[in-house]
């Protein structure tokens, strides 16, 4: 489905725009999250097979193992995306905690004013 | 010090909390049969506790929260994971993360070797970790030191 | 017993990191506050011993393969150790153990010492996982573990400069790792496998124009981690604001692991030796920019940060030349860079611990108060500038000769000029700190404590030994270089077990 890929690229572009051009640290972190979501969507839609079924093995499918293997979607990208979502949670939590401390010390969340370490 | 929400929100979240918790445990325990597993179940459990905090405020929430207990739970969850891997190595199976418990029939609850224990360990660690993260952020925003 | 050594080297720091909260709770009951730090030192020294035990099997050119859970590649995750892995694993484990010993005294007044030890063990576990794995998604996961640990460690003190440097490092670093994920996603869609050996085999049959985008994304992602110019913007702030033991860890362990990942992916997986010229040019730009910016710095740790960026340029130049001598020179300089950079950051930490500032304008005349620290700093400064008979000279000489032999004498000329500039700014730093007038308020500064001096003296002895006997260094590095160029042997050893 090429619609999936177009939306994924759009998400990555929007996330990049937020990451580069916004003037608030929280919005920058949100942009990072949106960009990673675009990459996840891209990764999952790469495993899709036309007319495929979910890759869960139940009792009656075990007799027709070869048929099941050719009809199911690829489960490896789904496992990769699960791992990446967990890592993303840790990154967003740490970035928001640091943003709280930056606000505590500097009084502002504007990245162009957080520049006391010069040169 | 942290203001809670209105009476409607408090009543509904107090009624919903046991069901959310039970749903989290269901997703966690059936991790090897249906979509879900350790991480997803842990997040749902943590979300149910955080929902009560947001509705009632940090001090008056009906959940009694002790910092020490949650930190110990998190460490125990991580150690369960590591020990299961080591036990697979030591107890004669010869490989890291080799299965020690029996692989039962397909589709029944007591099957899948070591996977249910790994799921439980992961979910304890994830739930405790996320609860600690939210607790730290809420206390810091309310102005108290950690 | 030896065949489980790869997984044990990754697993021991991770297990230690999970045990430390329990140990710290028990030790608070008995009022033995620093027990977790001693425990960290013990675990890291055991990891170093495990890594060294793998040396005998691998140095003859053999490759040790361990299948996780018994599943053979390409369906399972495999850990593959050859000469290159072993060299980098030794560097990482050694640097981490020395930083842990140094932290026994340096972080003594911290109340959150258990958090520091957990993060230190996590960074080590992540770096060991990067160096020993044979699966590219596993490499990404351990890369993230190492990076997240280092973001938290840079912002550890929670003061205004630490959080500013921390959030800058964090946002730039996470952007870099998401580029790596996109590159891995494109590779998986093209080939369908995740094991490095399998990808190396199948990428040989794919047209060159298809692999340009994943290759560019992966080089950019890893380049952000090793502070290659123009992706170096986070590095000076992060090195300046972090605690000095963490700056040493960043310079020694995480940069080395990031450079290993870049070399392994570009040279062995893609087989793209033609990219070497681009590496050499980036290396030259890095070298020049680092040295020029370091000339104007007023703060000691920022000066050391820029000089660290400059030294990474030498390594990229050596590795990018592509010939056997060039790669040997580059890897030898990587080993030497870990040794003298860690030594210099530890000296800066000793000065900060005793005096309270690292601003060059406020220091002076400390040579009488801290003679041992001054002597060790001078050894480190001479080593990094490439003065004989120290180890910097041996590795830089190899790079110069390799540049001339490869027909690019201009590169060697620029590298020699930059070495002279390095000597210039380090002499300026030594003059400003240890010689000259001593201000009144620095009259009673004492020498650094013995536990802090011990790792520094060990590193200085290594500098001198590797400089006087350079053949010892070449003996360590030659198996690594042979393993890097031996792509077909690696593929056969990993996949041949099926």
In short:
The complex is a heterotrimer of chains A (119), B (146) and C (498). With 119 residues, chain A is mainly alpha-helical.
Write structural notes for this entry:
- The complex is a heterotrimer of chains A (119), B (146) and C (498).
- Chain A is mostly helical and 119 residues long.
- Chain A is built from four helices and no strands.
- Chain A has helices spanning 2-21, 25-46, 65-71, 76-106.
- The radius of gyration of chain A is 20 Å and the shape is elongated.
- Chain B is mainly alpha-helical and 146 residues long.
- Chain C has a domain at 274-498.
- A two-stranded antiparallel ribbon of chain C has the order 1-2.
- The longest helix of chain C is centred in the middle third of the chain and has 32 residues, at 160-191.
- Chain C is globular, with a radius of gyration of 22 Å.
Structural class of chain A: mainly alpha
Strands of chain A, count? 0
Oligomer: heterotrimer
User: Which pair of protein chains has the largest interface, and what are the residue counts?
Assistant: A-C, 33 and 32 residues
**Terminal Cα span of chain C:** 22 Å
What is the mean pLDDT of chain A? 86
Strand order in the largest sheet of chain C: 1-2
User: How many alpha or pi helices of chain C?
Assistant: 20
Number of strands of chain C: 2
What structural class do helix, strand and pairing data of chain C support?
mainly alpha
Low-confidence stretches of chain C: none
Rg of chain A, please? 20 Å
Strand percent estimate of chain C: under 5%
Structure keywords:
heterotrimer; A: mainly alpha; B: 146 residues
What is the strand and helix layout of this fold?
The complex is a heterotrimer of chains A (119), B (146) and C (498).
Chain A: H1 2-21, H2 25-46, H3 65-71, H4 76-106
Chain B: H1 7-29, H2 38-56, H3 67-90, H4 115-141
Helix pairs in contact in B: 1-2, 2-4, 3-4
Chain C: H1 5-29, H2 35-53, H3 55-58, E1 64-67, E2 78-81, H4 83-106, H5 113-132, H6 136-154, H7 160-191, H8 196-203, H9 212-225, H10 235-241, H11 244-269, H12 276-294, H13 300-320, H14 324-355, H15 371-385, H16 391-405, H17 409-433, H18 450-468, H19 470-485, H20 487-495
Antiparallel strand pairs in C: 1-2
């Amino acid at each position: 489905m090429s619609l999936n890929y177009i939306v994924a690229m759009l998400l990555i572009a929007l996330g990049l725009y937020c990451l580069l051009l916004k003037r608030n640290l929280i919005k920058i972190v949100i942009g990072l999250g949106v960009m990673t979501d675009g990459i996840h969507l891209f990764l999952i839609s790469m495993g899709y097979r036309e007319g495929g079924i979910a890759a869960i093995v139940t009792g009656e499918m075990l007799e027709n193992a070869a048929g099941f293997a050719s009809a199911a979607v690829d489960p490896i990208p789904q496992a990769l995306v699960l791992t990446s979502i967990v890592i993303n949670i840790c990154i967003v939590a740490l970035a928001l905690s640091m943003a709280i401390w930056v606000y505590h010390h500097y009084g502002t969340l504007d990245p162009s004013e957080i520049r006391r370490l010069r040169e | 010090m942290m203001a809670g929400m209105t009476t409607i929100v408090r009543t509904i979240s107090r009624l919903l909390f046991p069901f959310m918790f039970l749903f989290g445990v269901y997703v966690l325990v059936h991790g090897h049969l249906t979509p879900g597993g350790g991480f997803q179940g842990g997040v749902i459990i943590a979300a149910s506790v955080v929902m009560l905090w947001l509705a009632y405020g940090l001090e008056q929430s009906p959940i009694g929260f002790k910092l020490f207990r949650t930190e110990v739970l998190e460490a125990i969850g991580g150690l369960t994971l590591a020990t299961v891997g080591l036990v697979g190595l030591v107890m004669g199976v010869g490989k890291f993360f080799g299965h020690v418990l029996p692989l039962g029939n397909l589709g029944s609850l007591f099957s899948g070797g070591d996977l249910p224990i790994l799921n439980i360990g992961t979910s304890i660690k994830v739930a405790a970790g996320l609860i600690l993260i939210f607790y730290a952020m809420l206390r810091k925003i309310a102005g108290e030191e950690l | 017993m030896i065949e489980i050594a790869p997984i044990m080297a990754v697993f021991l720091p991770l297990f230690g990191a999970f045990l430390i909260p329990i140990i710290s709770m028990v030790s608070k009951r008995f009022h033995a506050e620093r027990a977790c730090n001693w425990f960290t030192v013990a675990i890291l020294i055991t990891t170093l011993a495990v890594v060294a035990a793998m040396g005998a099997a691998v140095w003859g050119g053999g490759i040790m393969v361990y299948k996780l859970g018994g599943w053979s590649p390409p369906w399972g995750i495999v850990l593959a150790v050859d000469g290159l892995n072993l060299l980098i694993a030794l560097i990482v484990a050694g640097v981490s153990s020395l930083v842990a010993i140094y932290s026994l005294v340096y972080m003594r007044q911290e109340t959150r010492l258990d958090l520091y030890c957990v993060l230190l063990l996590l960074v080590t576990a992540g770096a060991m996982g990067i160096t020993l794995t044979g699966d590219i998604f596993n490499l990404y996961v351990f890369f993230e573990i190492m990076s997240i640990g280092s973001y938290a460690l840079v912002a550890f003190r929670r003061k205004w400069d630490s959080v500013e440097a921390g959030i800058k490092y964090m946002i730039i670093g996470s952007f870099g790792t998401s580029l790596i994920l996109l590159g891995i996603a494109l590779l998986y869609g093209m080939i369908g496998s995740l094991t490095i050996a399998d990808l190396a085999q199948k990428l040989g049959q794919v047209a060159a124009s298809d692999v340009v985008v994943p290759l560019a994304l992966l080089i950019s992602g890893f380049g952000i981690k090793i502070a290659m110019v123009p992706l170096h913007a986070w590095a000076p702030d992060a090195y300046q604001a972090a605690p000095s033991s963490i700056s040493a860890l960043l310079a020694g362990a995480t940069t080395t692991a990031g450079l290993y990942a870049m070399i392994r992916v570009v040279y062995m997986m893609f087989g793209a030796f033609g990219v070497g010229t681009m590496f050499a040019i980036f290396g030259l730009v890095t070298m020049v920019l680092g040295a020029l910016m370091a000339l104007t710095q007023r703060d000691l740790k920022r000066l050391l940060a820029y000089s660290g960026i400059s030294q990474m340029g030498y390594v990229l130049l050596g590795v990018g030349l592509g010939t056997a001598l060039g790669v040997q020179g580059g890897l030898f300089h990587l080993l030497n860079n870990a040794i003298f950079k860690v030594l210099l950051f530890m000296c800066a930490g000793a000065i900060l611990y005793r005096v309270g500032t690292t601003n060059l304008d406020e220091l002076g005349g400390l040579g009488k108060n801290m003679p041992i620290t001054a002597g060790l700093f001078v050894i480190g400064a001479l080593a990094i500038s490439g003065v004989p008979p120290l180890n910097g000279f041996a590795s830089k000489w190899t790079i110069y000769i390799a540049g001339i032999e490869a027909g690019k004498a201009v590169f060697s000329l620029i590298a020699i000029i930059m070495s002279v500039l390095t000597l210039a700014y380090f002499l300026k730093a030594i003059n400003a700190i240890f010689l000259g007038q001593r201000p009144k308020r620095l009259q009673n500064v004492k020498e650094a404590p013995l536990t802090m001096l011990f790792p520094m003296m060990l590193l200085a002895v290594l500098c001198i030994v590797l400089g006087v006997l350079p053949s010892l260094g070449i003996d360590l590095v030659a198996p690594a270089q042979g393993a890097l160029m031996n792509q077909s042997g690696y593929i056969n050893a990993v996949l041949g077990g099926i």
